[in-house]
Amino acid sequence: MKLDITEIKKIIPHRYPMLLIDRVDELVPGESAVARRNVTAHEEIFNGHFPNNPVLPGVLIVEALAQTGAVALLSMPEFKGKTAYFGGIKNAKFRKVVRPGDTLILKVELEKIRNNVGLGRGLATVDGHKVCSVELTFMIG
């Protein structure tokens, strides 16, 4: 299943400037999602991080992975209309700098969902190279 930006907005509550995924290329509700984010030089964050050496902050890469996982989770009928919140971030590792012009491929697999708490594993890549890996704990509100 693929989703464009309009369909993504029907599932997660994020909006500009905090909607950090542009498209979902693969979706298995309750199991996994693969999304993409096109990083552009026109983003406000690059005015301050860092002006002469633009680098996408790692926290925004983790947030983009979390939003990808939220699409997989909140596309389940029982969670429709809910919000997924961070419960924890573990073992976040950053391996490569992300710059304007890069396309992030964001993959999240949901490993466990029990009641309103769950665990997912995320991997972000650019051109096939690992950028970030992380374990995400989430709560559904």
Word description of this protein:
It is a single chain. The protein is α+β, with helices and mostly antiparallel strands and 141 residues long. It has a single domain (5-140), classed as Hotdog Thioesterase (Thiol Ester Dehydrase, Chain A), CATH 3.10.129.10. 17% of the residues lie in helices and 41% in strands. The protein has a six-stranded antiparallel β-sheet, covered by helices on one side. The mean pLDDT is 96. Belongs to the thioester dehydratase family. FabZ subfamily. It is an enzyme of class 4 (lyase).
Quick structural gist:
By secondary structure, the chain is α+β, with helices and mostly antiparallel strands. Helices cover 17% and strands 41% of the residues.
Protein topology:
Blueprint: H1 5-11, E1 23-28, E2 32-38, H2 58-74, E3 84-94, E4 103-114, E5 117-126, E6 129-140
Antiparallel strand pairs: 1-2, 2-4, 3-6, 4-5, 5-6
Q: Which H/E pattern describes the elements?
A: HEEHEEEE
Query: The CATH topology is what?
Result: Thiol Ester Dehydrase, Chain A
Average per-residue pLDDT, rounded, comes to: 96
Largest sheet: 6 strands, antiparallel
Instruction: Find the CATH superfamily.
Output: Hotdog Thioesterase
Question: How many helix segments?
Answer: 2
Major β-sheet strand ordering = 1-2-4-5-6-3
Question: Whole-number radius of gyration?
Answer: 14 Å
- Tally the structural domains: 1
CATH uppermost class = Alpha Beta
Termini separation = 25 Å
Q: State the total count of DSSP E strands.
A: 6
Which architecture does the CATH hierarchy give at level 2? Answer: Roll
Which stretches of 5+ consecutive residues score pLDDT under 50? none
The backbone outline, from C-alpha atoms, is globular
Share of β-strand residues: 35-45%
Keywords: Cytoplasm, Lipid A biosynthesis, Lipid biosynthesis, Lipid metabolism, Lyase
InterPro entries: FabA_FabZ (IPR013114), FabZ (IPR010084), HotDog_dom_sf (IPR029069)
Subcellular location: Cytoplasm
GO molecular function: (3R)-hydroxyacyl-[acyl-carrier-protein] dehydratase activity
